Amino acid sequence: MEPRRPSLTRREVLAALGLLALGGCARRSGGDVAESDPEATRLLDSVIGVDIHSHAAGATGRRTPAYDLAARMRSGRMTAVCLQHSSDSPVLQRDGQNRVRVTREPMSGELWRFTQARLDWIDALVSGQGLQRALRRGDLEAAHRDRRPAIVHAIEGCQFIEGKPERIAEVYRRGVRHLQLVHFMPSDLGDNQTESPAHGGLTTLGRDVIAECNRLGIVVDVAHGTLAMVEGAARASRTPLILSHTNLASRRLEPFTRLISGDHGKLVAGTGGVVGIWASPGFGSLAGYVDGVARAVDAFGVDHVGFGTDNGGFGQSQAVWIDYADFPQIVELLRRKGFSSADVGKLVGGNYIRVFNQSVRV
Fold first, then answer.
1. Element at 239 (helix H, strand E)
2. How far apart are the first and last CA of the chain?
3. Alpha-carbon distance 332 to 34, whole Å?
4. In angstroms, rounded to a whole number, what is the distance separating the alpha carbons of residues 13 and 308?
5. Which domain range does residue 108 map to?
6. Global confidence as pTM
7. Within-domain flag for 14
8. Taking the CB of the first residue and of the last residue of the chain, which one, N or C, has fewer CB atoms within 10 A?
């Protein structure tokens, strides 16, 4: 007896129809999509695009911006990026295989001074390029309505606090609304994925920092944290968690990998949170990146996945999505993958906006 073929899912049917409607697989620029695809253009007018983890334009270390970030966002109709520096950057270095290594212990006060300088840099970027900040509930929707590119000011890694949680309030006053707890440098907040665990997960100080983020109104980001650390954060936080940039592993996890298992992502989803899929060079193309997003949706659910490109964060390599002017192409590829208009809206920014609005103040 001939084996019964499995029935196609609704998304697979839509994907097949999308390929016929869009015709061919030639790479098209964002401008081409906006001009030639009426449905994509209508979607671009209605969805709110947000990259939930970005070092665009040299935010971590350049003395001057590498390009006009606001202009690229306007060109692609991208609403916002969560723009940040890495607070432990002065003690990090890439080796010959482009892997990040911690090279030394920081000097007393070094990472706090570095963070203050990068806060000044982003202040200058905002004023110089005509960006606005998302500070309160509803600000991202207003930025989309007014067609004004915005940033959610973020910091990657809390090493800048140097044992002083009161600095969280200080960076909040400077406009920070999204805070990642750990990065590559070992942290007294909890264990990270790329070092041997030393704390068994989240520490007391880590819980105190989460409580302060909840009190002030700051998005809690658990990227780079071990599964045990994320479990502790899920218990401690009163708001949904963001895991801003990673990818779902396709095989058994290797030691010290930055990829995550299905259980890791489901833990974040269980808080009502969002896993951001990074635009790793390993995807090879924008189409490969969208395939990675679709895999994450199948694992965690369409309400719990977003874009966390890590734009500018791959050292000498480049992310497969480096220019926000290509946002229309991403929208087209998601349609081609079979996602409905409503689901495209969730993935490109709606899911993050839900968490942002639950986390920050009115």
1. none
2. 63
3. 9
4. 28
5. 27-359
6. 0.91
7. no
8. N
